[in-house]
Amino acid sequence: MAKKKKSTTTTPRKKISFSLSKQQKILLGSFLFLLGLALLFSFISYFFTWQADQSEIGNLAERELQTKNWLNKFGANVAHFFIFNGFGISAFIFAFLVTLTGVYYFFDYAKKQLTKFWFWGLLLMLWISVFFGFFGEKTTIFSGIIGYETNDLIQDYLGLVGAMLIMIFVLIVYLVVRLKLTPEMAIGAFKSSKKQIASEFVADKQEITVSKTISEEENVEDEKDVPQPYIEEKVTPPPPEKIILKSDIEGDVEMEVEQAAEEEEIENISDRLVKDFGEFDPRLELSKYKFPSIELLRDHTAGSGITINQEELEENKNRIVETLNNYKIGIANIKATVGPTVTLYEIVPDAGVRISKIKNLEDDIALSLSALGIRIIAPIPGRGTIGIEVPNKNPKVVSMRSVIASAKFQNAEMELPIAFGKTISNETFVVDLAKMPHMLMAGATGQGKSVGLNAVLTSLLYKKHPAEVKFVLVDPKKVELTLFNKIERHYLAKLPDTEEAIITDVTKVINTLNSLCIEMDARYDLLKDAMVRNIKEYNTKFKNRKLNPNEGHRYLPYIILVIDEFADLIMTAGKEVETPIARLAQLARAIGIHLIIATQRPSVNVITGIIKANFPARIAFRVTSKIDSRTILDNSGADQLIGRGDMLYTQGNELTRIQCAFVDTPEVADITEFIGSQKAFPDAYLLPEYVGEEGGTNLDINIDERDAMFREAAEVLVIAQQGSASLLQRKLKLGYNRAGRIIDQLEAAGIVGPFEGSKARQVLVPTIDALNQFLNNETNTN
Ligand SMILES: Nc1ncnc2c1ncn2[C@@H]1O[C@H](COP(=O)(O)OP(=O)(O)OP(=O)(O)O)[C@@H](O)[C@H]1O
């Protein structure tokens, strides 16, 4: 048992992968390409010079000695090796494969196809050389010694006929597997070539008659010498094909079947535009933009990878076994996975021990192990084992550099990839913000929230071009996000006529949030017009030039709203920020607006029900109480974290413990400086103008300006006793915007109550009769 445990604990999970840098690939590619050419030239010239050079083969020591091969001694020897001693004429295939490999590496094409080329190329090479082996020793130059000897060997066992049959079989394998040839295709090809010959023959005949008539006409013209008017060539569509079906039954009526001619296809405008100008490239305006290099990030681990302290592991194991024994829980098996900050001990209890028993003892076990940061997961979802996380004595910092450089992040095919850090099993943790679609981040002060936000922003800066993503930054503390000011004209969005893009003042936050709602509505209209469901499809359509910019269509960058201290805002502005945030969170995912909200105070009056319901992705750094942990995660656990970037992530169900990547302020300063010093857009991305209204929401809409469907809409809602815009959309077949406007008008009239986030609005009029009376009174008083 002890032996077994050792083998599981001493192997850190490291994957060794072999990959070349771009430069190395180019160098290797050129080398192979030129080597292939050298082989090719020496092979060609070998066929002319081999007899003359034959006596000099193998004589490399004598420098003065000259051979006739174009590549001199090298060429003569190499070609002799491959052709004479090897595969004869088919050695050319080898030279070709080497050249091709060079091309593949030089242009960094996917190598899967190349492996196929090599496999089938080598097979073909062998086949050809064995084939030439049939012609005997005189043609060794064509078959090579390998071909000749292999043929000889086969014939010794199977005779000439057997050898031929084997060759035919290999040929069939090649044709069927490599060239995907089927008997039908072979027959088809034979038939069509017969037809082609016949039709060519007929066409020849017709041509002769046509040319004859033209020459006759010319003669007539010459005689009359009358200038002929320009005769426009008129293309008449071919007459519909008629097939007459005759029946064998006497007296039956014949039926004529008419086949309509195929309509002529005209090239699509968008296809033509794409052909003429290529696809629309949103990056074109800043085509010279350079992404920040990995060198701007520092390696905080200072070379110390994960070290495994054998003593510590043994000690913890003994304590766990002892503690569980105290509660009469036997252990069948125990396995340790060492992560950057904590080690996970995965326990398989003895047969018959109920997991619920361990779950009930969770607190007692944690207490007995008496260390900060112990978390018990009973059972580990999907595995049926029990996990006990124990903090390492020497936790390791996970630097942002290592996660950004990881293949997982670099190869991530996500819209908005975020490299958060490393999981307990030391794997880089990458998630797509576009899928979350909004994120709530909480944690007591000093536990790593700001570093976490910087990690999110840095990830996006390393992956997305300025044309593709825009940030709206809200920083009431006025310190955390200031560094991002430098990239205002590259990456930030702001309200028109404002100086600073980073928002620090509460009124401006309210205006910005409302402006984002307007942007959202506008984007929905664009999507509707383009008949697509989400921003990704919209942008693809726009890139393919299927949407006309003159009709208001534009490339839509993702907009990411980051609020660093949400508690401050909600305390000062309450509903005024909560309402637009809830609205954005509910609706903005499809149109590419994503929200990231961070707070120090994870209490229920800050993270309200409405907010929580709309933020499925939650991150908790260490918090002070179980209640706070439940407020953020709907689960305890965040109170047992150890701080310094130790965090729990959930996107609905499971909790994942992650060590957040560390990025220091000077690193962020370097990155923003690097980006900021490059050519930028003329201004920050301008959000739609929003004119703030005094006294909160716009409640005094004039009766005359009401929508034509106002009354019907009111009836629908009163009957359903449910004040929802989507109900109106469905019942009255209205667009999203119009339904929203009508709801506002109904609110102004006092028929429905105010916005309540994810819940439908209250309907304040109980029956249709009451509604009629209400509306009549209204018209009478006006
Ligand atoms: N991922 C991490 N790895 C290592 N150390 C970290 C990590 N995150 C934070 N720390 C340490 O914790 C300190 C505080 O982190 P940070 O400033 O992010 O806390 P915070 O929660 O934002 O605090 P506040 O709410 O007061 O701004 C950092 O200066 C750093 O030393």
UniProtKB/TrEMBL annotation:
PROSITE patterns: FTSK (PS50901). GO terms for biological process: cell division; chromosome segregation. The keyword Iron does not apply. Residues 426-630 form the FtsK domain. One of its GO terms (cellular component) is plasma membrane. GO terms for molecular function: ATP binding; DNA binding. It is a multi-pass membrane protein. The keyword DNA-binding applies. InterPro entries: FtsK/SpoIIIE/SftA (IPR050206), FtsK_4TM (IPR025199), FtsK_alpha (IPR041027), FtsK_dom (IPR002543), Ftsk_gamma (IPR018541), P-loop_NTPase (IPR027417), WH-like_DNA-bd_sf (IPR036388), WH_DNA-bd_sf (IPR036390). It holds the Pfam family FtsK_alpha. It is found in: Cell membrane. ATP binds at residues 443-450. Keywords: ATP-binding, Cell cycle, Cell division, Cell membrane, Chromosome partition, DNA-binding, Membrane, Nucleotide-binding, Transmembrane, Transmembrane helix. The chain crosses the membrane at residues 26-48, 78-105, 117-137, 157-177. Belongs to the FtsK/SpoIIIE/SftA family. This is DNA translocase FtsK. It comes from Aequorivita antarctica. The lineage of its organism: Bacteria, Pseudomonadati, Bacteroidota, Flavobacteriia, Flavobacteriales.
